[in-house]
């Protein structure tokens, strides 16, 4: 498994006292996950912002996103592209109006860099009063020498189905990939739509090749704002794939590996009466011999055909340790309750079981 990125110096991370107050100065989102339609902003028709004390508060767009409709020719072109005669004959747009399109951030980054595979779960952050989206981007290949394709492992059948569904959506064939790296972090301004690609793994040969093709497209990790860097987190899809590989290849003894004696699988849990695999989850974790909690992404494992907890892996998210992977194996002579066993004990408790049954009734 990769060792991750070089550690950032702790002195480079601003102290918490130096971070600005957590106040949203610009809460309006013009570019997001559900913004699938184009809009005409800053027109004669004011935009509804929010209701307040029985009255509506209006706002006009003052950003730089989209394209300015400053003459009749542009109005004709965008009308032909989007709204036909409705836009051409409308009296609402002015010379200062802007048309914003491709506002869905996942669609936007795929248009800008279709050669990358993007995480399906962007997350939003607050920095200096403004909202930004962060999307994890991957370089992938199915031609890496002496590397086993991910779908050939029985422990990752559900992951394979998920990747194939994503492949159908993105047009990228992930069926049988044997190389993947989280080489790029994409930062999107939620108000202006500005997209910036930051390279986080400069030693990745694939991203280096693309950087040579598009030299002005990517920026170095060192150029990212430290306030944004503090919000970067380890991607769950990446840990899923690394966990699938770790579940089999943590066995280093040839005889044990051949007989699959120590094979582990992802832990399971109950969800609305059904059993499903545990997804990676973010927690605050305090390492041994440390008095400072760290933000990590964790994935637990159980032995094959058993429910006791046998190990977990974690991807570190804090800037000074970002990219570092940690694997913890529990002693085999100790019986550590697994996730599903803990839920079974909760169901067996008469007080909790009664409450859960009541809350689980329809209409509650």
Brief rundown of the structure:
By secondary structure, the protein is α+β, with helices and mostly antiparallel strands.
How would you sum up this structure, described in words?
The chain is of the alpha+beta class and 364 residues long. It has 3 domains: 39-100, no CATH class; 105-229, no CATH class; 236-358, no CATH class. It is built from 10 helices and 18 strands. The strands form 5 sheets. Strands 6, 7, 8, 9, 10 and 11 form a 6-stranded mixed sheet that branches. The longest helix is centred in the middle third of the chain and has 14 residues, at 157-170. 25% of the residues are buried.
List keywords for this structure.
alpha+beta, six-stranded mixed β-sheet, disordered N terminus, 3 domains
Summarize the SSE layout with pairings.
Layout: E1 39-41, E2 47-52, E3 55-59, E4 67-68, H1 72-83, H2 85-89, E5 98-100, H3 105-112, E6 117-118, E7 123-127, E8 130-141, H4 157-170, E9 179-189, E10 195-199, H5 205-213, E11 218-220, H6 226-229, H7 236-249, H8 254-259, E12 264-266, E13 268-271, E14 274-277, E15 281-285, E16 294-303, E17 311-316, E18 325-329, H9 339-348, H10 350-359
Parallel strand pairs: 10-11
Antiparallel strand pairs: 1-5, 2-3, 4-5, 6-8, 7-8, 8-9, 9-10, 12-16, 13-14, 15-16, 16-17, 17-18
